[in-house]
Batch of 3 targets.
Target 1
Amino acid sequence: MAESTSGHSARYSRYSRYPRYGRVEEALRAYRLIAGMWLRASLAYRASFWITTVGNGVTSLLDFVVIAVMFQHTTVLGGWTLPQVAFLYGTSGLTLGLADLLVGSLDQLGQRVRDGSVDTVLVRPAAALAQLGADRFALRRAGRVVQNLLVLGWSLLELRLDWTLPKLLVMAVLVVCGTVIFGSVFVAGAAFQFFATDAAEVQNSVTYGGATMLQYPPSVFARDLVRGAVYGIPLAFVNWLPALYLLGVPDPVGVPGWFRFASPLAALLCATAAGLAWRAGIRSYRSTGS
Amino acid sequence: MARSVALAHPPDPDPTGPTGPTPLAALRARPGGSLRLYAAVARSSFRRYAGYRAATWAGVFTNTVFGFFIAYTYQALWQIRPHLGGYDLSAALTYVWLGQSLLMPVAAMGGGVQDDIEARIINGDIAVDLYRPVDQQVWWLAADLGRACYHLLSRGIAPLLVGSLFFRLRMPAGGAADQALTWVAALASVALAVTVSFLLRYLAALTGFWLMDPRGIRQVTVVLGMFFSGFLLPLSLLPSALAAVAQHLPWAAMVQIPLDVFLQRRTGAALAEGLLLQAGWAGLLLGAGQLLQRAVVRKVVVQGG
């Protein structure tokens, strides 16, 4: 994602004090510097930082409480047991949480277009995507990540999976590619806000709504909805399809078997599409003029 | 640093300026003026939210998508346990879609005038509000009712219509009189739900005068509200001891009671009890808000300069 810059950085890179860096390195460096600044700023108010971090974890725990209450009344849901659903819950929340931590600030873009502060970003000699992604970097969002890791850890203990090298590899790929897919949704959603500055909430249906969907087994949903998550917005590649392989569960909709291992391909497609959308968005940007 | 000015008692504002009565004072001067003033506040608040069309459509879309996802999970559970918690499948699905309809009107995730008050406490504009010859609580209540009215008409109705195309939802049944009574009672219950929700958010927002950063309190109240309002799951699904308590907490007045009224799970004495419970919490929280705002007026420090 970081390589999809605005074109401005290319123009300014020859003025950079570090000409030996390429565009990607430069964008990552800008991201690190800006995120670090916001990190120091947020840690200046220690009590507030810890309260909001724990608060984020507790808020995201609510969804698991709902699942746990449901399993008070049944032993399986859509044919999946509680530890299996907890695996879906943990991986869904973990990948969304990581994407939100890294680039979640992008969902405020519409606000910045309205108040004209995108102008400031565009005249600075650094990639716009890196600047806006790192804007108001909030480590408190790690609260969600840690909470989901705990649930995921519990589910793995309960499931007693027979870990082989391919399975470990698929698990690692799941976390990375899931984060990339959700991150791409954040970037594409931000690009959409260049056109519809007030419609920031639409992307919540794919990010938070999508993550809610991925917490439950695909067998729960209508087949068309699951197909849409495979062939449309490919959220199924975040955790549903890898989970079919990792947990050895039958496929409810009948997609090609190799799709279970195709998350990297889906992530690559998503990142490319998001990068193109971002370019289109930033090219169409017109200042508010105020 | 800026000079601090302690306002022990906000000076009484002069109702008539040098060029005659202000519109505000003029409104209050007429008979029934206060009511007219607050009605004007509610109307402007309605119009303020109605101004953002794209935001409304974005919200309708998101509520609808969430409605689908949650409805399928309920469907899976109720197909295994057809009468779980006293709801049949169709009632449970209606519960999901009505819950999505009420989410914004009752601001189950916080917000509405809470955002405005919190921002005005932080940037100091609240001092201007305290000058106004109006009751702060009623002023903000009027503004929030106007907002809720708009959200009910836009984000309340549209997702419900979409949901009813794809799922068999349960509308009030029985004779014409029963149906009419249910609709009227449900609307009254929703009005009380918004009022209770506002009063809770108002109390949470006022803590900003002491805490400076209201985010922590807000997170706590949102978590409690989301869960104990019955928005995430009907309260009757909780372990029975917890469910019995939760049914009587103020948050139940926000979602659980109005939905049970609409689904005709509360009729006759139970209906009256539900509405009385809502009204009781509204009265209690109104009093608490009045006490807290009196304390605020003594406490407020305006950063001048």
Target 2
Amino acid sequence: MTDSQTSTTETTVGGTAPTSFLSVRDLRCHFPTDDGVVKSVDGISFELERGKTLGIVGESGSGKSVTSLSIMGLHRNVGKKNGPRMSGEIWLDGQELIGAGREEVRKLRGQKMAMIFQDPLTAMHPYYTVGQQIIEGYRQHNPQANKKAARDHAIQLLDRVGIPQPDKRVDQHPHEFSGGMRQRAMIAMALANNPSLLIADEPTTALDVTVQAQILDLIRDLQQEFGSSVIIITHDLGVVAELADDILVMYGGKCVEKGPADKIFSEPEHPYTWGLLGSMPRIDRELQERLVPVQGNPPSLINLPNGCAFHPRCPYADRTEGLSKTEVPRLTSVGQDHLAACHLPLEVRQQIFTEEIAPRL
Amino acid sequence: MLLYILRRLLNVVVMLLVVATITFGIFFLVPLLQHTDPVMRYIGKNANPVAIAGIKVKLGLDKPVYEQFWLYLKGLVVGRDYANGNDVIHCPAPCFGISTQTQTPVWPTLLHDVTVTGSLAAGAAVLWLVFGVGTGVVSALRKRTAIDRVAMVTALAGVSLPVYFTGLAASALFVYNLGWLQPTNPDVTFTSDPGAWFQGMLLPWITLAFLFAATYARLTRATMLDVLGEDYIRTARAKGLPERTVIGKHAMRSTLTPIMTVFGMDLGGLLGGAILTENVFNLHGLGFDALNGITKNDLPMIMGVTLFAAFFIVMANLIVDLLYAVVDPRVRLA
């Protein structure tokens, strides 16, 4: 195990299969609407190795979920009239998914890659029992399994995700489960075929705080047990703090910073990441100060601000000699495996961080 | 569950009692208040004071109103004899009264005619469910395509065009212009001549189904589009289920639930008589009886059809509620 397993160097688009397990290259996903084209994801690239965890962090509407749905191939009517336009490459274990046929991608869904959704109440069919919903996904990819074996498998999974009396709970409907139990059942459903890639889209947002920690622990334990790669999508840096090996910060459909998790927390290089860190409650925070919100609102994805999309909200935009208003910053290396897209000169940035930001964190 | 059903059945009885009271009130009290004598409707041309007095006694119209009402309710349950000395009309339970036109009990006519209405409603229901729901599903899946637009414009036409237009137009075209079908003969029954019965029912079925299919297509489309936007449909896709399972199983199950409710109410309402369709095609069902009763001032017949129709609607309501608990596990009856 070396650090290079979580390589985050800038990737370029090419037709060849990469060496890493999941490789996303220059992913773009644009939705035409009556008001204009919504550029939900506009050039995202990252790599994820087997058994590692990537955290994708950003505000609502930054393109996190669209990214994950793109990987799962869950966008509808891609390339059709009024449908989303997708480009770039998604390589999963040597297979390219954007150019692949819908049927090929469907067979991978639920088997090689699986997804845990945000709200487990609405994400489960109210009319079918939890067991039926797990079994259905299992037998879809294991048609040889008989009903008895599939049911036993479902009970085992429910037991594994920590649901008491799984042999009884398996025949209950989602509305008979509590919120936390429902999310556990959702995780069991995702794990039905032992997927090598697990995408958790805001897995704890709909849960109360005590349950959140349990669910995150569960995801971490299961990852170690099953050896899956995990992508955790969240707006809460606290969620990924303990879980993620790498973190990718998204803003306005673009990646503004990515790197190893400890670097993102100890030496963040983008003013937006500073903002996110400053607005995160921390137990180890020494000063009893108020949390600092990121001023303003997320940008419209139809009309992104010129230049750096973050500049209208950036307190340091005036120190870029006007560059941030005119030119889109490129992701550039700021340390080992650490990239950031910011016009602030490196020295200025580090000075601001050490003098103004770090003492507040 | 059993207790719930019993309670609801009691509810049905109470509802019917209320309907019976109101119809009785309207049809028996109103003429009295207007000083028009209901006896005149029975007596016909041979009216003389002796005959009028005789019929008054025979029908119990000489008794106080509350006693008449009591006799009416009692007749519904145990039957009743309309008697004036040796002049007796026996009206077995359930006695809905004596028709002023035929001077015979209303009930056997209702019982016979409900089969006509029933076969009209059942055949039409099959057609409108298949075509209405089918069109709605296709429209939802092909949203904003030419198919969708054509289907929805047709559905709009179906909702807007009255049966007495579509029915007559269809008759004129297929029966009298093209000569493909024979006019519907009300005396032909399924048992007497199945082939002729079927071809006679074809246009009534289609006419009635067109009206309802239009509503169902629009309802199905709207519900299906809502359901397709649900998170659990995305979950089903995320599990790698093929699209036909996602639509045919997960989406359809949720779509059909509200349709089942509307269907139960529609069918219950129709069994009380499809007045327009039956009269356009000269089918002697309950709807025909209702219109006939109104035009001929046959009050007991109108009361009978009303009570009968109320019974079907209340029962349909009950059945839909019970089915809902079966279909949707979140619904618990208590």
Target 3
Amino acid sequence: MKPSGNDSSPSTSASRPLLLDLNESLQLIETTMGESSDLVVRHMQIGKTPCAALYIDGLVDKETIQNFLLEALMLEMPSKRVSTKHLYQIIKETSLPIGELKEVDTYEKFFKHLLSGETLLMLDKVDKALAASTRGWQDRGVQEATSESVIRGPKEAFTETLRTNTSLLRRKIKSPELRMDSMSIGKRTQTDVVVSYLDGIADEQVVQEVHRRLEQIDVDSILDSGYLEEYIQDGQYSPFPTIYYSEKPDAIAAGILEGRVAILTDGTPNVLLVPALFVNFFQSSEDYYQRADIGTLIRILRLACFNIALFMPSLYIAFTTFHQEMIPSSLLISLAAQREGVPFPAFVEAMIMELTFEILREAGVRLPKPVGSAVSIVGALVLGQSAVQAGLVSPAMVIVVALTAISSFVLPSYNIAIPVRMLRFTFMILAATFGLYGIILGLIGMVLHLCSLRSFGVPYMSPLAPFVPKDQKDVLVRFPRWGLFSRPTSTSKQNETRTNPTSKES
Amino acid sequence: MDNQTISPRQFMFLVIFFTIGSSILIVPGPVTEQAKQDSWMSILLSILIGVAIIILYNKIGELSAGKTFIEAFNDVFGNWVGRLFSSFYLVFVYILAALVLRNIGDFMTSQIMPATPLQFTHILFFVVVLGGTFLGIEVIGRSSEIFMPWMILLLLFLFLFSSPQISMDNFKPILGDGVSPMLSASKVMISSPILEMVALLMIFPYVKELKQTKKGWIIGSVIGGSVLLGITSLCILVLGSDLTIMNTYPTYRIGEKISVAGFLEGLEIFIAIIWMMTIFFKLIVLYYASTVGFAQFLSLDDYRPLVLPLGMGTIILSIISYPDVAYFESFVGEIWFSYALSIGFILPLILLAGLLIKKKIKQKGA
């Protein structure tokens, strides 16, 4: 293949119409593919017409090709004695017992079908080819979710195969209104992307906006939904995520039922959901499977943990450095005694411990499982205990860092823990320079920023700001199922009724 | 100017913050100084007078039909005379913004962070204000909705936990010095914040639903006034009128007196947080009003280019405006009332008269 300066343009011969002559055509295909070893070309003869079946080894189900394509063509066709003239038409209409059959007339389409695992049938003196769906490759199958585990509720997770993922959604929502608009993005990877929503419930404008943003992406490759996220998100320079993702079909189905739009990408189990509001990142699908009271309490706990994870180290710094008079005297004495031998100011101490924790966390994620336990021993014993014994940090600081770390794991979405991790350091710097004054101003600034964000046209902080009284039933408090009478107004403006209050047992 | 709008609820919250902000620092002391233990009555009186003034403002907002105070002046009195009047107004709002910034700076450097220079306190605070102003009124309105529940919680906390320290005897004798000190003390709160609310006429046109807005303004100022009433009463009841007068920041002293179960002590930081939040919103409303006002005064399409340069001016003005807190207290007691009255009452009256005459002429012509 010739090296091209502009990587976004596909090879030039591809958009040509198919050639009439079979041999010339095959030659062109083989040169374009560079005689790749996984391209299989099966020459055969039906009656007097030479023809060829092409497929990519490994992407196809060989049994289907054997049983329904080759057998039909090579064993059954000759007995029908059809004329050469109508051969193509006859094959297309009567002879191939395969569910999905498409006609292609350009090399661009030809390669697209061939490379997505279909078998292409070409006849001599016909400038069209038949694409039979024979897709079948190895995938890992539907397994339990690895990054979002639940105690109660469905445990299955999306896989890397797009069709499996759409079927998982279809199985949950058996409504003819469930739309699956598909498109392919990426000049080289031709990645299939499906936009899924409920027609009549999802906001039309959001659906159009999703399509518009996806269509304007011009890139060579899409390997994960994360690529798409960076292209289509609002607030490009904000640390806060404005797109929700999950690998659990029930979470995505619940979002679709609330009138949101899901974006499924081939090759990744992470499905995007828009519009995503700030409060969505504090809701787990399990809130709805457990009973309402515990669901509510856990949400309040999460909010508390969000604040602990964000402010705890900076508050410690501010209080011990600037506002000792505000600490109750008995606590102050014990804190001061602990800090007696520590050679660093509270800020440096906190910085060291927080950075250490970030290093441990990152190492724990990357390391293979058997080594992972070694890291946790080193982290817990060597760094935690020994650092205190060596007099490098105070025990109170270790407690603060541990509490911060555990709190950040309480947040159900990994996405929202990332800004917390980053902003924690900003707040620590503010605390070290301006004390509580700095922390509060930082908080006000953060809230101003959050209020300025939008996700696909919906204010990010809604339904808190702008305040929507009707939607408060599912924000901090989770009402019982029969109390969730309407869909959130921020995502679904039409068809709001969800349940009839009389359906509950009184 | 901007297509941004805010809801009547957001406007009401801004009014509440505006009423409480900075007045919570400056009102209890001076009022009690004049009216002693009867200061709660003066504040009650000021709220009543305040409602009357806000009805006047509402009338102006309604008559100017979607125009800000500055635009309405230009509209009624023409380009030159209108600009003459609105320049008085702009200077008032701009100076007020600088003074409010100085209030929080004085408080921070004298009570919480004595080692930090005033300039840096001001710069940090104002950077956040500038950011908020840049983002626009919509964002300001929304964040008021986020902070309101927290402020209510903190206030409840303050009232609840300081209630054991209350001694009702501190209210006695009622009207011991006669009615006149009580009446004259009400000037303090009328000038700040009631008459300062004339600045809200700059954001009035950006609120949806006129009728709700007018209601929201009155309700908001009554709620905010009640908080001031509660805080001042609390100061007298807990500290007594003498201690209230002696302290520069009497509310802060209440926080220091809180002690729950021998553990929850030194909760004055909660009061500091209430102050910072309310003053932030007052300042951002004032600063937004003055930048938008300047932009309209200069017939600019967008106020955003003015945000940074005017902000630098505000920081400098806030530092050079007065030498110390004692100077400021006498300024507030003696001069501010007449200044606020001329801009917050007489100027609106002139505009109202102009608007009414214009309306009459229009009706005759039609």
